[in-house]
Fold this protein.
Amino acid sequence: MIFQNVLEPAAIVIFGASGDLTKRKLLPALYRMVKDGNMPEKFAIIGVARTASTKEEYQALTRTALEASSEVGTIDEAAWLRFSSALDYQTTEFGSQEQFQALRDKLEGAGFHNWLFYCSVPPSVFPVIAEQLAATGLNDEDAGYTRIIVEKPFGTSLETAKSLNTVLHAAFKESQIYRIDHFLGKETVQNILSLRFANTIFEPLWNRTYVDHVQITVAENLGLEGRGGFYEEAGVLRDMMQNHVMQLLTLIAMEPPVSSYKDGGFSLGANALRDEKVKVIQSLRPLTDPAAVSILGQYMAGSILDKNGVAQPVPGYLQEDKVAPESKTPTYFAIKIEVDNWRWAGVPFFVRSGKRLPVKNTEIAIVFKRPPLNMFPKQTSPNQLILHINPDEGVSLRFDAKVPGLDSSLRVVEMDFNYRDNGDLGPAAYERLILDALLGDASLFPREDEVVASWAWIQPLLDAALNPEPYVAGSWGPNRAGAFIGESSDRLPRVWRELPAS
Ligand code: BG6
């Protein structure tokens, strides 16, 4: 990808310039964009935060962040020079109109009329920033474009998400707002669309006639990573289900988006894609009895394998920093979701995610029905198409084949495609999404109605405040979770059956 020549000059302003996400993800992504030729010829990056700091100090902080980042590797000095000379910093109280005016003067003084604002701050600060941007005319598009990227979590409930939309809309049009969900920037997540709609062999099977059930698993071996304060409020449902897992589910379940014919080819508009995702969320069976279809968990002390495969003891959730001693915040969920539409009626989607599970593994398994007649003595397991999202990136297809020999026994064989084998690892998620925002392509950013619909669906589960069941860190979740999902041997949770146990 080299977009340098098609991008208009632009200034990127990061609110929350010294925050954790900025250091770990945004600055490395911006540096990589410069290095890979995906930044406009003329650009500026201005870090904005309350912490008093100078431009030189911010450049030094950025260099340290890049050196610590696993996404950067050896720093290319020529790219660093180009990147760092465009880096600036402005100490700003988010409530100060005067300082926002100074920001505007700085941008215009440097000849920038296209502005991309990145809000990498807690949701409670978004309204203050939006208000000051509007008060100083930093929301207008008179001389160029103005776009605002808003980090997740987008609200903490249906009500707060709606009021956040209202606040943002008071200052910006929907077309200026880019709500980020970094899962949508992952190559492998985008590949769901390519796999489904660029091929003829999968889509005919992608429905209730052939699919028995779908399993979406987002397992993490990490714990809180110092984010106890945030996590206590969020819990796994707000941190993972409402956004990342919901996005995976919509891409798997959606209908092909309408594409329009233009200039001799078909093109896909941002709204066409998002329309279909919204329809999926609207088809989800309401969670009228959350306890009947979901189970929550919270990890206790246990152990997790380190990089060398050695078990390391880890504390339980309640012993983590900034966690209340009797906290009921869930760190694990498993939910059985019914998608009530013509394509999926009767096909359950089992979704689950948790912290402190044995391994990091995000994958989607499409598990097919068995053939109508069993002609072979020992049929093994149902066919499965597995989309590996992270850390493995690829697709594998499992099916039965004859064991060579005189009898007719079968065994499972696997056809594998792995991005890594092809040597083509794409841009990191944030790099892709920031580039899309510069290009004005909102396809991979959830729209207002999408966010509201997903909060509306999950709200009854949040309101039910189910007690989380304990599980040992390093296990696959609460004991009941396996049986909860496994109604028959074909519906055993894939991770329990095939991935390494604790
Ligand atoms: C973030 C969550 O949005 O996604 C984290 O806040 C989680 O809790 C992370 O660990 C997972 O993302 P990835 O890209 O590492 O799979």
About this structure: The mean pLDDT is 92. The longest strand covers residues 211-219.
